[in-house]
Amino acid sequence: MLAEVLVDRGDWVQVVPGARACLFSLEESPLPLHLPLHLDHLHFEILFCQSGTMALTRRDGSALRLGARQVLLLTDLSGLSGARVDTPLAGILVAVDARGARGSLDTICDLLGGLNLDTGQVRRWMARREGCAVEGPTHWSRAAFADLDRLPRSEQARWCVWKSVELLYLLSAQEEEASDAPPSLAVDRKTALILEETRRYMEEHLNEHLTIPILSRRALLSATTFKKGFRRLYGLPVHTWLRQRRMERASKLLQDSALSVLGVAQAVGYGSVSQFSAAFRRQYGLTPAQYRKNA
């Protein structure tokens, strides 16, 4: 997807067989820049975003927002209906052909102490997110970008490939832990359909006061079944999923609407600017006003 756009717009390095990286800046490109929406089979991309923003829309209507010092993961499972660069984007893109990179991944995992990287687990984790996900801000992403800042440009491509393997391992381990849940926590088809409908309801009512008791009553499930089933199906606790979706919606409103910061806060379910600003800063590393100014 991004590799197709960056064919002649960045500095490409073949780091290991099956994995290459591109250091790029789209400062001279006309904006907004609409991106192609497909990846070849068994290809995936990891973008370390150093500056700029990207807006992605899934086929179910949910939105993702990539900002500075966040990492975007894209696979051939991507269920995107739209992707565009809104502000000048710069960073390092890692493009991987899984068929050619298997040996390289095994070698890197051996160097990291014999890590067991199960790419099947990673694909399942990504499939539940329709093939696209944003990592950060987290402790891992903050440390990753802090280290990246210290490196000379000549070493950044190789280092990002290394960190990409580390990130894939973390996702693999996370998925394996979820798959080891006892049978009593498995989500049957009927419950999964109920949870999917509830997730859509949450997407459409982010401005409302949504709590576990309210949502579980609406789904006709016990609070415990609702919480455990949601986490097993979507990989996140309900409150974490809600906060991320609210922040994604807020970032879009800050860029695309004339609403005041209070208006944006209320549109995503916050009653006070202070609470909203604190949550937004934890997600993006900027206050809402700073984010809007940069956008």
TrEMBL record:
Keywords assigned: DNA-binding, Transcription, Transcription regulation
InterPro entries reported in the protein's UniProt record: Homeodomain-like_sf (IPR009057), HTH_AraC (IPR018060), HTH_AraC-typ_CS (IPR018062), PchR_regulatory_protein (IPR053142), Tscrpt_reg_AraC-type_HTH (IPR020449)
SUPFAM superfamilies tied to this protein: Homeodomain-like
Molecular functions per Gene Ontology: DNA-binding transcription factor activity; sequence-specific DNA binding
Domain of life: Bacteria
SMART domains attached to this UniProt entry: HTH_ARAC
Pfam families, per database record: HTH_18 (PF12833)
Domain HTH araC/xylS-type residue range list: 196-294
Protein name: HTH araC/xylS-type domain-containing protein
Species in which this protein is naturally found: Intestinimonas butyriciproducens
